[in-house]
UniProtKB/TrEMBL annotation:
<dbReference type="GO" id="GO:0005524">
    <property type="term" value="F:ATP binding"/>
</dbReference>
<keyword id="KW-0472">Membrane</keyword>
<protein>
    <submittedName>
        <fullName>Phosphonate ABC transporter ATP-binding protein</fullName>
        <ecNumber>3.6.3.28</ecNumber>
    </submittedName>
</protein>
<dbReference type="GO" id="GO:0016887">
    <property type="term" value="F:ATP hydrolysis activity"/>
</dbReference>
<keyword id="KW-0067">ATP-binding</keyword>
<keyword id="KW-0813">Transport</keyword>
<keyword id="KW-0547">Nucleotide-binding</keyword>
<feature type="domain" description="ABC transporter">
    <location>
        <begin position="2"/>
        <end position="246"/>
    </location>
</feature>
<dbReference type="GO" id="GO:0005886">
    <property type="term" value="C:plasma membrane"/>
</dbReference>
<dbReference type="InterPro" id="IPR012693">
    <property type="entry name" value="ABC_transpr_PhnC"/>
</dbReference>
<dbReference type="InterPro" id="IPR003593">
    <property type="entry name" value="AAA+_ATPase"/>
</dbReference>
<dbReference type="Pfam" id="PF00005">
    <property type="entry name" value="ABC_tran"/>
</dbReference>
<keyword id="KW-0378">Hydrolase</keyword>
<keyword id="KW-1003">Cell membrane</keyword>
<dbReference type="GO" id="GO:0015416">
    <property type="term" value="F:ABC-type phosphonate transporter activity"/>
</dbReference>
<dbReference type="InterPro" id="IPR027417">
    <property type="entry name" value="P-loop_NTPase"/>
</dbReference>
<dbReference type="InterPro" id="IPR003439">
    <property type="entry name" value="ABC_transporter-like_ATP-bd"/>
</dbReference>
């Protein structure tokens, strides 16, 4: 379980980017975080994994207070926080397998990391996860030879190799075409259920948030102004979150793109 209480992030003397956020995310749940650019969505995720230091507040993961951790204790805690990035963050010249095994760097010695001598059980787990997401046949292919959807699947498997207790996804479909975006959202949804893993997804596509998550949290200027199930997320909520800007009706009601035919791009 992830528990966030009164989370505040301020840069210098400026107005806080996050203004006292409270959020509890149970295991198995997929939560979409929506809001305009600058609403604080990415800052919130980066506070959770401590890429950004919270100014105050509490972030607890399965009972461990993350905000108080320093040094080795923080490094150990970060191993349990998987992160999927919009830009994939792969090392292009390395193979898919090598990129996936990077998710184990927090668990092996410096010698093993430098020489890429990972334990056999890590390699077996990597193959099993790559098979699960449909990229096992690319194990020895360079990352820069893959499509966007394939690269994002590598990013998902790399995060899962950490054996995370929570998975954070920062605009994981923003660099993908619509059909591939649907596939990645379906993958994250199914993995949350299979692995009893809480998943938080920053996303701009409201239709996808409604289709593939069970809860939507809306931020505006660092304040949470909506927290409910997708069926409750109506046009009034959309306009409140995005500053009263009129949005087309199909932004809320559009069905997911078809994925039954054609190859992944």
């Amino acid at each position: 379980m992830l528990e966030i209480a009164n989370l505040i992030k301020r840069y210098g003397q400026d107005e806080p980017v996050l203004k006292g956020l409270d959020l509890v995310v149970e295991d198995n749940s997929v939560v979409a975080i929506v809001g305009a650019s600058g609403a604080g969505k990415s800052t919130m995720l980066r506070c959770i994994n401590r890429l950004v230091e919270p100014s105050s507040g509490s972030i607890r993961l399965n009972g461990t207070e993350l905000v108080a951790l320093r040094g080795a204790a923080l490094r150990r805690a970060r191993r349990k926080i998987g992160m999927v990035f919009q830009g994939f963050n792969l090392i292009d010249r390395l193979t898919v397998m090598e990129n996936v095994l990077a998710g184990r760097l927090g668990y092996v010695s410096l010698f093993q990391a430098v020489t890429r001598r990972f334990p056999a059980e890590d390699i077996d787990r990597a193959f099993a996860l790559m098979e699960r997401v449909g990229i096992a046949h690319y194990a020895n292919k360079r990352a820069d030879e893959l499509s966007g959807g394939e690269r994002q699947r590598v990013g998902v498997v790399r995060a899962l190799m950490q054996e995370p207790e929570v998975l954070l996804a920062d605009e994981p479909t923003a660099s993908l075409d619509p059909r591939t975006s649907e596939q990645i959202m379906m993958l994250l949804q199914s993995l949350a259920s299979e692995l009893s893993l809480p998943v938080l997804i920053n996303i701009h596509n409201v239709a996808q948030a409604k289709a593939y998550t069970e809860r939507i949290v809306g931020l505006r200027h660092g304040t949470m102004i909506f927290d409910g199930v997708p069926a409750e997320f109506d046009k009034a909520a959309l306009e409140a979150i995005y500053g009263g800007i009129e949005a087309p009706d199909d932004e809320l009601t559009a069905a997911p793109a078809g994925i039954a035919s054609g190859e992944e791009s």
